[in-house]
From TrEMBL:
Pathway: Amino-acid biosynthesis; L-methionine biosynthesis via salvage pathway; L-methionine from S-methyl-5-thio-alpha-D-ribose 1-phosphate: step 1/6
EC id: 5.3.1.23
PANTHER family hit by this protein: METHYLTHIORIBOSE-1-PHOSPHATE ISOMERASE
Residues at the catalytic site: 245
Gene source species: Acetobacter farinalis
Entry protein name: Methylthioribose-1-phosphate isomerase
Membrane spanning residue stretches: none
Length: 366
């Protein structure tokens, strides 16, 4: 994606700067576009834990580079395995992280230690290229859905889309998942407007999705998380489209907390609810998302405090709850497949069912 006309990916390597890894510090957006230089696997792990880098596909790609950085220190078998385990443990819900680390280990175990660093950078680079290509393909398939809706809109009225959290290019290596079709629709001149859930507690929608859409010129309106049901009741949402952190082989969808409530409201109002994902987000080993997907419990301080920019222009955090009130912070929920209209993958769209997914990915045995 372009920032002020310059194309960027969300992660890149600087060979001339010690093969360091570069990302945008997402905790500084939308107020400041800061590039973060990562030189060790500990720095990568810390960036993932603090959500300076976030979004299921991007976490996987950056963790892959984290393993490459670890191998620069020690390319032996024992160190490789323990650093891989350390990186895989940084966040529990998004399956792309585990997928990427597994893929790296499968590629690197047969390689002699002295050749592992080069092999690791090459494999991580392939993971990035594939993620960008998959998301672009998701964009093309999802675009068809928006084109269909646009055909039936009265002239001059936009197709109204609603999204939750941030599943744009900054959450992936490029393009995004849920936002890729929206970018393509806008780019080909379709009249689209996006309702952006603010996405408490971390406000990925208000901070990141709104920033992405605004930078790309896509008309959008930020709403409180609780507004979506009301808008659907009043015919102001034509399509809900979200990303996901893990999809079971049966089509259950883990995504940012609050997604399930949007799906319930969509069902009640006959609004189509679509989920966009690269195949790296499918967990073929899991059948029941509600009981089997681990849900990350994050710090209570993300609930008791909100981050923002003060009137003095300085980024700050303010407390919004009384001293002593307890807070709980489950970061994801699971939307059962029965509430999902369909899945948009790099190989096309399918129903959120095991048969649907297997029809697109017949090579999967799990
Ligand atoms: C494209 S990832 C799926 C998103 O909708 C969302 O759940 C996400 O970005 C992950 O959450 P985060 O906790 O911000 O890393």
């Amino acid at each position: 994606m372009k920032i002020n006309g310059t194309p960027y990916r969300s992660v890149w390597v600087n060979e001339k700067d010690g093969w360091s890894i570069h990302i945008f510090d997402q905790t500084r957006l939308p107020f400041s576009l800061d590039i973060l230089r990562l030189t060790t696997q500990q720095e990568v792990a810390q960036a993932i834990i603090t959500m300076q880098v976030r979004g299921a596909p991007l976490i996987g790609a950056v963790a892959a580079y984290g393993l490459a950085l670890a191998l620069r220190q020690d390319a032996g078998d024992a160190a490789m395995e323990s650093n891989a385990a350390m990186l895989a443990a940084t966040r529990p819900t998004a399956v792309n992280l585990h997928w990427a680390i597994d893929r790296m280990l499968k590629a690197l175990r047969p390689v002699a230690p002295q050749e592992r660093v080069a092999a690791a950078y090459a494999e991580a680079g392939r993971i990035c290229d594939e993620d960008a290509a998959q998301n672009e393909a998701i964009g093309r398939h999802g675009l068809e859905l928006i084109r269909e809706l646009a055909k039936n809109r009265p002239a001059g009225t936009p197709v109204n889309l609603l999204t939750h959290c941030n599943a744009g290019w900054i959450a992936t290596v490029d393009w995004g998942t849920a936002l890729a079709p929206i970018y393509m629709a806008h780019d080909e001149g379709l009249n689209v407007h996006v309702w952006v859930d603010e996405t408490r507690p971390r406000n990925q929608g208000a901070a990141l999705t709104a920033w992405e859409l605004g930078s790309h010129g896509v008309p959008h309106t930020v709403i409180a998380d609780n507004a979506g049901g009301h808008l659907m009741q009043h015919g102001q949402v034509d399509l809900v489209i979200v990303g996901t952190d893990r999809v079971t082989r049966t089509g259950d969808v883990a995504n940012k907390i609050g997604t399930y409530l949007k799906a319930l409201a969509a069902q009640d109002n006959a609004v189509p609810f679509w989920v966009a994902l690269p195949s790296t987000t499918i967990d073929w080993s899991v059948a029941n998302g509600v009981t089997e997907i681990p849900i990350e419990e994050r710090s209570a301080s993300e609930i008791t405090h909100v981050a923002g920019r003060g009137e003095d222009g300085v980024q700050t955090r303010v407390q919004i709850t009384p001293d002593g009130s307890r807070a709980a912070n489950p970061a994801f929920d699971v939307t059962p497949a029965r509430l999902v209209t369909g899945l948009i993958t790099e190989r096309g769209c399918c129903p959120a069912t095991e048969a649907g997914l297997r029809s697109l990915f017949p090579e999967q045995q799990g």
